[in-house]
Write a structure and sequence with these properties.
single chain; Glucose Oxidase, domain 1; 2 domains; four-stranded parallel beta sheet; 604 residues; alpha/beta; eight-stranded mixed beta sheet
């Protein structure tokens, strides 16, 4: 095992002793209780199973067979979740074949950042994660289940489901993915059209045709954003049926893998030594997830989400842990925006299994962890394959089938994971440096300050940004407006970079790594609304962003900086950030939310 892996894991364990101990004690107390139908009042039990067929009631009441709760993020608006429509019936059918029963315990909301980007609805996006966690808790709070299957894929949905499930840490749980959509217009071509549209070279009709060719069918978007990073991390945590992440929704194997998830969760219920999700997700598993994120150049959103997930299991992590692991983790995959390939090409080249195998072989992961498959993380180093009517898992090739997409641990794309913590007199931020060209790793330029992404876009359209500068986009943190993704800033900043200008962005908002080749210091903490230093920057101040050594500073006399007044939102800006599109209902979350480095949690 690599020294850094052990060192970071051990300090997380020591830091988490009080909270983890209390969490595990609660699980043990729950495990000592009788089953729901024996523990609860007769009226409670009758209500729970009133609509079930008599044969199912017989299995529950008399035969005491396992009962599975299904929590689903199905809706038919989002391509990634549309395939879930018929999963409950399939799951119930397989449960019956295995001598068990299943019910849909509840549904959770699922929203898409791709639809809401640049719109007011995006300001509900981050908070939807904790709403999903609460919805999961409500579903499982009926407390008659022996296990749970969690159906969800995308950005905030998987973290929300996992946070919610960890509140029921006494239950065996398996996550059930739906897979990516087939390859459409490649991501590089799509980005070029966006840049041309930003410059006025092509019209809306061309842009619409391009976007529709890229996003064209059921399944997750094919770039390696937060949704597909979710699936990679669940594989690395051992919470999927091995290899289930990136099989297309319409592939025959998808139904087979979904049925296998039923058999897998029931095997956990019936195991002599039950390992519920709260005990499975320990410090080593959290570290494995972070390593998988870093080795694949995954979404920076998980610097927020996995802090929250760990906290839900009584485990305390911070961005220093991410950064130290990044320094010691090799980059083994290049998938857009960290490369040219999409997730279907990644899967064809070996996918999650190839990466996990190589990380274990190089000593970069804890292999001896509990998983839902039951035999340690080695189960996740193979590829599921259909042989006649059966699923079998086969070994992957020893060498990469395509070295432009995946590599072995001894021949990586780089020796580090490409995620770096930035510190300095502006606070703490993260940068996804793996896609940033070498000549852009260090940017020193005057600041241009914006209080919204709309202000920056307007300045670009007016031709005011044709120069070297660092865009400072503030009042985008969790407390200010829910920390929206700032996706729409990527095309204009890329256009300016392509023209030869030195550009970067510093923000207390999110960009999910979608900044690509443009240096982006994101999640800056403390945020402007919490009196963070970003609120003191004025246009013209010289800033230096150094992704090589990990620093972010304003170059100004210390005394002058100390005396510099803090900017504040106007009443009109505050009103605009809190009204319309349902934002009124999330006022309590904006007031209670913790910082980005604390996971932006609203429930502590």
């Amino acid at each position: 095992m690599k020294h850094v892996l052990y060192e970071v894991t051990e300090r997380i364990r020591e830091r988490s002793i009080p909270t983890r101990k209390a969490y595990l004690q609660r699980i043990d107390q729950m495990l000592q209780r009788p089953r729901g139908d024996a523990r609860m009042g007769c009226a409670n039990v009758a209500h729970a199973f009133a609509a079930m067929p008599p044969s199912d009631k017989l299995r529950i009441y008399e035969e005491k067979k396992p009962h599975i709760g299904i929590v689903t993020a199905y809706n038919d608006m989002l391509s990634a979740h549309q395939p879930y429509q018929n999963y409950p019936d399939l799951i119930k059918d397989e449960a019956w074949k295995q001598g068990a029963t299943a019910q849909v315990a509840g549904g959770v909301p699922a929203m898409c950042d791709g639809i809401t980007q640049g719109e007011p609805g995006m300001e509900l996006s981050l908070f939807s994660r904790d709403t999903i966690a609460m919805s999961t808790a409500i579903a499982l709070s009926h407390d008659v289940f022996d296990a749970a299957l969690l159906l969800g894929v995308c950005d905030k949905i998987v973290p929300g489901l996992l946070i919610g499930a960890l509140q029921f840490g006494h239950l065996p749980c398996v996550f059930v993915p739906a897979g990516p959509m087939s390859t459409g217009l490649d991501n590089t071509s799509k980005s070029k059209v966006r840049e041309k549209y930003a410059q006025g070279i092509v019209g809306r009709d061309v842009l619409q045709a391009s976007e529709s060719a890229a996003y064209h069918g059921p399944g997750t978007c094919t770039f390696y954003g937060t949704a597909n990073s979710n699936q990679m991390l669940l594989e690395a945590m051992g919470l999927h049926v091995p290899g289930a992440a990136f099989v297309h929704p319409h592939n025959d194997m998808r139904e087979m893998l979904t049925r296998e998830s039923v058999r897998t969760v029931l095997a956990n219920v019936n195991a002599a030594q039950l390992v519920p999700i709260g005990k499975l997700v320990d410090e080593r598993v959290i570290v494995n997830a972070i390593v998988a994120l870093l080795a694949t150049g995954g979404s920076t959103n998980h610097c927020i989400h996995w802090v929250a997930i760990a906290r839900a299991a009584g485990i305390l992590i911070d961005w220093s842990d991410f950064s130290d692991l990044s320094d010691a983790t090799p980059l083994l995959a290049r998938v857009y925006p960290n490369g040219a390939a999409d997730v279907n090409q990644f899967q064809k080249a070996g996918g999650a299994g190839f990466v996990i195998r190589e990380l274990i072989a190089g000593g970069y992961m804890h292999a001896d962890v509990a998983t839902v498959a039951g035999n340690g993380l080695s189960d996740y180093c193979k590829l599921p394959t259909q042989v006649e009517d059966a699923l079998v898992w086969v070994d992957l090739p020893a060498q990469s089938p395509d070295v432009s997409i995946v590599r072995t641990h001894n021949a990586p794309f780089s020796e580090s994971g490409g995620l770096r913590l930035l510190t300095g007199n502006l606070g703490r931020a993260v940068i996804k440096s793996s896609a940033v060209p070498e000549e852009s790793q260090i940017i020193e330029a005057p600041a241009i300050v914006f209080d919204s992404q709309e202000e920056l876009l307007s300045a670009f359209k007016r031709g005011e940004l044709e120069r070297d500068f660092i865009a400072v986009v503030r009042f985008q943190g969790p407390r200010a407006n829910g920390m929206p993704e700032l996706h729409k800033l990527t095309p204009p900043l890329s256009v300016l970079q392509n023209k030869g200008f030195k550009v970067a962005i510093v923000t207390d908002g999110r960009m999910s790594g979608a900044s690509g080749k443009v240096p982006a210091a994101i999640h800056l903490t403390p945020e402007a609304l919490a009196d963070g230093a970003i609120g003191k920057i004025q246009s013209g101040d010289m800033l230096r962003l150094n992704a090589v050594i990990g620093t972010l500073n304003v170059l100004i006399d210390e005394d002058e900086w100390h005396e510099r007044p803090q900017a504040h939102l106007t009443e009109a800006q505050r009103f605009n950030n809190s009204h319309g599109m349902g934002r009124e209902l999330f006022g309590g979350m904006r007031k209670s939310v913790h910082s980005a480095e604390e996971g932006a949690v609203t429930w502590l």
